[in-house]
Amino acid sequence: MEVLDIIKPENQVFCKTKLMTGCSLSYCPGCGHGTAHNLTMEVIDEMGIVEDTIGVAPVGCSVLAYDFMNVDMTQAAHGRAPAVATAISRLWPEKYVFTYQGDGDLAAIGTAETIHACNRGENIVIIFVNNGIYGMTGGQMAPTTLEGMKSSTSPYGRDIETMGSPLKITELIANLPGVYYVTRQSVHTHKHVRKAKKAIRKAFENIKLRKGLSFVEIVSNCNSGWKMTPTESNIWMEENMFPYFPLGDIKVDGKLK
Amino acid sequence: MAKVQGAIVVDTEVCKGCEVCMPVCLENVIKMSKEVNRKGYHYAYMDKPEACTGCTNCAIVCPDRALSVYRVKIPA
Questions:
Q1: Read out DSSP for A199-242?
Q2: Is A12 within a domain?
Q3: Per-residue pLDDT band at B15 (split at 50, 70, 90)
Q4: Pick from A1, A33, A34: which is nearest to B5 by CB?
Q5: 3-class SS at A32?
Q6: A39 inside domain
Q7: How many domains does chain A have?
Q8: Which residues on chain B are in Cβ contact (under 8 Å) with A29?
Q9: Do residue A231 and residue B20 have CB atoms under 8 angstroms apart?
Q10: Interchain CB contact of A190 with B (< 8 Å)
C-alpha cells in the first residue's frame, strides 16, 4: 500500500492533543518538558475534565506553561505554586487543581511551600520535573544536582562536603501523612512515557477521592544545561540519574512501598 | 495473519531535530533530513516507509508532538 493511501483521517491513530495551544514550545530540542506538558494535557483531555481544571505554572523553564496548555492557568511567584494551588482548591473544592514545577522551583526556593502543602494534604496534583539543574538561568547547580556533576556554579563538580548531598525531596515528602500518592517516572522512551501517563492519570483521579495530595516526579534531561546532545543526555540520565533517583511508585493509596 | 502498515506525517516546521524518536523506532524507519526548516533544524522523515508499523512510539516521545501517526490493517 502506498504511503499516501495510509495517510487518511480515518486511519489516524495519534496526533497532538487539542489541549495544547498552537504556540511552538520554547524548550530546547529533546527537552522532557514538552513530553510532560503533552502527557498532562492528554490525560485531562481523556478524562474530560477540561472545564474543571486549573493549573499553576511555576518560575523556571516552564514559566510559559500557560501559553502552551490550553486550560485555565495562573502563574505563581517563584516556588509558591503549591500555596496558590492550595487557595484555588479551597475556594473551588470541586476543581482539579495541579501545579507544574521544576526542581529549582519546588526543591529550592519553594521547599517550605511544597512540604507544608504536602503535610496539610491539600487536594491537588503536583507534577515535578527534575532535571538536576537550573535550566532557564544558565545551568546553575540545583539542590538535585548529583555528586560530582558539573554546572556553571559548580565547575569542578558538586562537592558533598561543602555543597551537601542531592536532595531527594520526593522520598522526603512521601513520609508525610497528608500525601496519598507519590511516584517517580521518566519520559525519555516510549515505555517510560506510557508509564508516566498512567501515573499522571492516577494522580488526577485521586483528586476525586479527596484523600490527599498526589505527587508525580518526572526525571528529565536538560541537554543544554548538561552540555550534551539530546540522545547523549538521555543515556547519561539512565546511567547517572536513575541510580540516585530510582523510578517507580514510592507511595500508593497512602501506603509506603 | 493480517499485516499492519503505518505511516507518519512530520510537521517539519515544528520538528526540532532532537532525534529522540530515532532510538525508540524498532524498525529504524526515521532519519533526519539534510535540509533544514525555517528555524534551522534538521527534521525527521521516513527513510524506510514500507517498514513502518504505526506503533506510535516515535510520536509519544516527541516533546513537540511534531508527528502524527496513521495505521491500516492489510488482510492477508
A1: HHHHHHHHHHHTS-EEEEEEE---HHHHTS-HHHHHHHIIIIIH
A2: no
A3: very high
A4: A1
A5: helix
A6: yes
A7: 1
A8: 16-18, 41, 63
A9: yes
A10: yes
Using CA atoms, how far apart are residues A157 and B31, in angstroms rounded to an integer? 35
Q: Which CATH number characterizes residue A35's domain?
A: 3.40.50.970
Residue A76's domain comprises 26-132+141-256
Q: Look at A15 and B69 and tell me if their CB atoms are within 8 Å.
A: yes
> CB distance B61–A190 less than 8 Å?
yes
Per-residue pLDDT averaged across A200-219, rounded? 95
Query: Are B24 and A157 a contacting pair, CB within 8 Å?
Result: no
The rounded Cα A241 to chain-centroid distance in angstroms is 15
Question: Which domains are assigned to chain B?
Answer: 3-74 (3.30.70.20)
- Asked if A229 reaches chain B (Cβ–Cβ under 8 Å), the answer is yes
Q: Using an 8 Å Cβ cutoff, are A126 and A215 in contact?
A: yes
Q: Are A29 and A230 in contact (CB under 8 A)?
A: yes
ipTM of the complex: 0.94
Tens of pLDDT, residues A99-139: 999 999 999 999 999 999 999 999 999 999 999 999 999 99
Residue A3 domain-assigned? no
Q: Report pLDDT digits (tens) over A141-180.
A: 999 999 999 999 999 999 999 999 999 999 999 999 999 9
Q: Is the pLDDT of residue A205 over 80?
A: yes
